[in-house]
Amino acid sequence: MMEPNPPPVARFSLLGPPLRTFFRGLAAVLPLAATGALISWAVVSGETLLRTVIIDWFGLPETQYWPGMGFVLSIALVFVIGLLMYSFIVRQVYRRLTNLLEHIPIVKFVYGMFVDVARLVSSAEEKPFRRVVLVRLPEGLEQIGFVTREAFDDHPDIGEDKLAVYFPMSYQLGGFTIIVPKANAKELKMSVEEALRFCVTAGVSKTEEK
Asked: Is 64 exposed, middle or buried, given 0-12, 13-18 or 19+ CB atoms closer than 10 A?
């Protein structure tokens, strides 16, 4: 008779608990560090650029320059530009400039990408993502997407009762858009921010209870 195999011996590694603790700490620190580094890079870059403007263009002596003046100037410039956009003449000049950029190869692609990002984080009336929907796909699959258009008056060949839905890709800065019948899209009770976080993190992110 063959002797039964002995039960497997449980292996204990001294590095197991320390490694788990390390990676748990890394998961907590890494998002904060990456966010802080990005904010720091943006502030320092703007400060360095506008420091040159203040010293070279405005003629301010370097001894009278205080750190942070460039950052304050950037906020003031953005505020002034926002006020100027209420002027009809300024809006016409801005529209002509943007039309020119949109007709330059390569430049129009880069400019359009930044415009879409700016619209995404701007006022609620201008956000391209209007609603969160669950789209029914072939073979019983479903996917969360964002309604970007609900009418195609400028493209009548697309047809009526259809939606343009954008699907972001997980852990990537990209996605794709499809046209689906309205009957295949079910609106979800999720905010755009919650749904975007859910999609980008492949469903790992959870909404915290209030």
From this structure: exposed
CA 185 to chain centre: 23
Residue 186 lies in a domain: yes
- The full 3-state SS of the chain, as one line of letters, equals CCCCCCCCCCCCCCCHHHHHHHHHHHHHHHHHHHHHHHHHHHHHHHHHHHHHHHHHHCCCCHHHCCCCHHHHHHHHHHHHHHHHCCCHHHHHHHHHHHHHHCCCCCHHHHHHHHHHHHHHCCCHHHCCCCEEEEEECHHHCEEEEEEEECCCCCCHHHCCCEEEEEEECCCCCCEEEEEEEHHHEEECCCCHHHHHHHHHCCCCCCCCCC
pLDDT tens track for 123-174:
555 556 778 999 998 888 899 999 988 888 888 888 888 999 989 888 776 7
Domain assignment present for 136: yes
When pLDDT is averaged across residues 47-71 and rounded to a whole number, the result is 81
CATH number for the domain including 141?
A: 2.30.30
pTM of this prediction? 0.51
Q: Domain for residue 147, yes or no?
A: yes
Residue 134 lies in a domain: yes
Count of structural domains, the chain = 1
Which residue range forms the structural domain that includes residue 178?
128-200
